[in-house]
Write a structure and sequence with these properties.
Blueprint (H helix, E strand, L loop, with lengths): L3 H10 L4 H27 L5 E5 L2 E8 L14 H22 L4 H24 L2 E9 L2 E2 L5 H23 L13
Antiparallel strand pairs: 1-2, 2-3, 3-4
Helix pairs in contact: 2-4, 3-4, 4-5
Length: about 180
């Protein structure tokens, strides 16, 4: 665990604090797993091909030109460049928040997962013009929207942000927000 003195020492040496480096590593792992899994699906499946794994789960290759749950997928194509710019910008803000809030571990890990997932999907949009989704959970004929490793990391990161806030409220209900919302 990083203590305030460790953070101060990192400032003195000019190196990134270890928590920041660990968060960057986590984001890189998310991106690498996401891109590897999508590569494997693209190599093994043709578009819309599906393979049942168990009664409620299929591997499938689908292309999402929109955002979550294919929202905006039918638009004219502006989203191919808008969402990568948005994803890169949001990730840069999150990395800055990780740096300025390095003493809030759960908050930093959550942001690292979200940023890694966002950048994983940005890579798809820049290469293909769409995001490759392949995890298809279903019940009978009802299918949840197909998703991928990046989407899973984003969802896990969002859940951890909620948990972080609930824990903060539980342990310090009277305290105001101690995180730095704006980079210094």
């Amino acid at each position: 665990m990083t203590h305030e003195n460790d953070i101060d020492k990192d400032k003195d040496t000019g190196t990134l604090p270890s928590r920041v480096l660990h968060c960057l590593a986590l984001s890189f792992i998310v991106i690498a797993l996401d891109q590897w899994s999508k590569y494997m699906i693209v190599q093994a499946f043709v578009y819309l091909q599906s393979q049942e794994i168990v009664s409620f789960f299929n591997l499938v290759r689908v292309h999402n030109t929109g955002v979550a749950f294919s929202f905006l997928a039918s638009d004219a194509g502006w989203q191919r460049w808008f969402f990568p710019i948005l994803g890169i910008s949001a990730s840069l803000v999150m990395y800055r928040l990780i740096y300025t809030n390095k003493h809030h571990a759960l908050f930093c890990w959550a942001l690292a997962l979200i940023a890694g997932g966002a950048l994983g999907n940005v890579i798809d949009r820049l290469i293909y013009g769409y995001v490759v989704d392949f995890l298809d959970f279903h019940w009978s004929t009802w299918h949840f929207a197909a998703f991928n490793v990046a989407d899973s990391a984003i969802s896990l990161g969002a859940a951890l942000l909620i948990l972080d806030e609930l824990l903060k409220l539980k342990h310090h209900p009277e305290a105001s927000d101690t995180r730095k919302d704006t980079p210094s």
